[in-house]
């Protein structure tokens, strides 16, 4: 089995990376950054997001696992003290692979009908650089609403506990193949109307955002920030691709939500 390690690049994470690399090599695994079977992320959730985007072209063959060197993360749920246990399980291939849905974002530009397609593990957000964001929202080719406000966030189920949750969106179990559109401070009065609630879209539904006036936007894809000009539309849907996580022990999603947000002493 071939492995790679993505470190947050602080002293503690790098020291753990060196230990894990030595242990795994001693167990006969091969360090291969180009085409690993398993990618160990050491740091936080942000480190796993970086690892995901680094191996974005190899999602059907790579499985991810995260060790946290700060607080318990959503994706980074192994403690540094458990590293030996983890290494032994990896070398014995003593793990299952679980798959979570992803978000596909297709950005269409006015110029030459150019198109960029991105995959997000957590979410994509859209904001206007200096004015109120005004976007027509279409669901499955029908006009739904004209949104005015700070921005919009489209998240995956596993990303629903990240930015989406801070915006008051629902936490969605990753067994649902769905994406969730959440508002950021919409303007609602007698003149302007939005639905004022998060919308959960199933697989095969699509949401298209069309600029009304300004065509320059700040778009994020997880931690990646894009400053885009002359945007014609942005289409969101559940991606065909999935992300694969190596699961070594039961750690149910709701327990992770509890331990991350309520307390993890019990
Ligand atoms: P980061 O690594 O510092 O992440 C920010 C925080 O989000 C960390 O506490 C991390 O543990 C948490 N997080 C990330 N993914 C999560 C998930 N799926 N469930 C629960 N918590 C999660 O910063 P970064 O590297 O820039 O990460 C980008 C992410 O930060 C974005 O994908 C977005 O979800 C999140 N974010 C959150 C807010 C907010 O909550 N108001 C604002 C901006 C960005």
Describe this structure in words.
The protein has five helices and 16 strands. The strands form two sheets. Strands 6, 7, 8, 9, 10, 11, 12, 13, 14, 15 and 16 form an eleven-stranded antiparallel sheet that branches. Helix 1 (11-26) packs parallel to helix 3. The chain has helices at residues 11-26, 45-54, 83-91, 163-166, 253-261; strands spanning 2-7, 30-31, 38-43, 63-68, 76-78, 96-109, 115-120, 123-127, 133-139, 142-155, 178-186, 199-202, 207-211, 217-221, 224-228, 231-247. It folds into two domains: 2-95 and 248-261, 3-Layer(aba) Sandwich (Rossmann fold), CATH 3.40.50; 102-240, Tumour Suppressor Smad4 (Sandwich), CATH 2.60.200. Helix 1 links the parallel strand 1 and strand 2. With 266 residues, the chain is of the alpha+beta class.
Structure keywords:
266 residues, alpha+beta, Rossmann fold, Tumour Suppressor Smad4, five-stranded parallel β-sheet, 18% helix, 43% strand, binds nicotinamide-adenine-dinucleotide
CATH superfamily of the largest domain: Probable inorganic polyphosphate/atp-NAD kinase, domain 2
* CATH uppermost class of the largest domain: Mainly Beta
- What is the first-to-last residue Cα distance? 36 Å
How many helices? The count is 5
Q: What is the CATH architecture descriptor of the largest domain?
A: Sandwich
Helices and strands in order:
Elements: E1 2-7, H1 11-26, E2 30-31, E3 38-43, H2 45-54, E4 63-68, E5 76-78, H3 83-91, E6 96-109, E7 115-120, E8 123-127, E9 133-139, E10 142-155, H4 163-166, E11 178-186, E12 199-202, E13 207-211, E14 217-221, E15 224-228, E16 231-247, H5 253-261
Parallel strand pairs: 1-2, 1-3, 3-4, 4-5
Antiparallel strand pairs: 6-7, 6-16, 8-10, 8-14, 9-10, 9-13, 10-11, 11-12, 13-16, 14-15
This protein binds nicotinamide-adenine-dinucleotide (NAD).
